């Protein structure tokens, strides 16, 4: 049934039988670059025409991106703020010897704070879940963290269909 029934699937995560050295200096550098990358993403998100132009070739071959860009264009036309996020927080490790991964809770915290900053009680957090999603637990943990910290935020799970 894996891969043929929605919500049922098995994906082998990459792993190593032996520990792999990863210098602390590389980890610190990655953490520093994260701030710079986030600022870049923020600045790109403020320029809708640039974003649409940059992804114009991608949307021709990737249905999900095309669909998100179509929504983004409609929102730009009515001058509403919308974030276009295409990433997944996935495979958080939990070990004493590996730095903690708080991706799900921090992502939920960012969504909750953005909702508060938007200052509109009718605003909602919308999660678009692809058909045949095999990482459905990402959304599950994200929603749970959001409910715990921001129980007053409305959210919707919206299934993506390529034929929309």
UniProtKB/TrEMBL annotation:
GO molecular function ontology, one term from the record: glutathione synthase activity
Highest taxon above the source species: Eukaryota
Domain Glutathione synthase substrate-binding: 123-152
One Gene Ontology cellular component annotation held by this UniProt entry: cytosol
Pfam families xref list: GSH_synth_ATP (PF03917), GSH_synthase (PF03199)
Protein name in the entry: Glutathione synthase substrate-binding domain-containing protein
Species this protein is from: Aegilops tauschii subsp. strangulata
Taxonomic lineage from the root: Eukaryota, Viridiplantae, Streptophyta, Embryophyta, Tracheophyta
